[in-house]
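Quick check before the chapter quiz. The format below is the same one you will see on the exam, so make sure you can read both the input and the output lines.
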Amino acid sequence: MNIGKLKKYLAQKFNANIRPELTYHTWDHVLSVLDVCNKYAKRYGIKGRDAYLLRTAALVHDLGFLWTYSDHEEKGVEFTKKELPAWGYTKEDIKRIDGMILATQIPQKPKNLLEEIICDADLDYLGTDQFYTIGETLYQEFKAMGQVKNRDEWNKLQINFLKGHHYHTPYAKQYREPIKQKHLQDLIANG
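Here is the expected output.
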């Protein structure tokens, strides 16, 4: 198992096949989730196989977008079952990776710390100063994919999403949630 080679393989596959309308769900998003997962692994002392599986899940969590826009997590799980054994992952490894992928489905329902970490990493930007910049890429994607018609619909969707979302790890609850709540209040005030 070589995560560097797997990362390179997945980057080529992703970038060669992702639809141009997907302005948020890009390889940059995948790398951002990986980076945040690495920070959480260090913060929580996650090492060895657990860290390796978390990093792998970060790399494959949105791969299903290559085949479908809705239920992309299920397609990602199909990919892991088919492809990851050739990379040296055991059935148990893949089961744990799949759990992390499926935990990122909205609404998120993580069942353990690794799943909590990937969920918080996937939506980390909600509680950062990148909220509006990254959110704009998601707005453009949603508009292109027919999920929203205009900025008013987008703002209503954002408000409802932020009201329903919650972080899972103690770190995100302490350091991301207050910033996310400020963004929510700003959206309500300006909506």
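If your answer matched, good. The CA atoms of residues 52 and 190 lie 43 Å apart.
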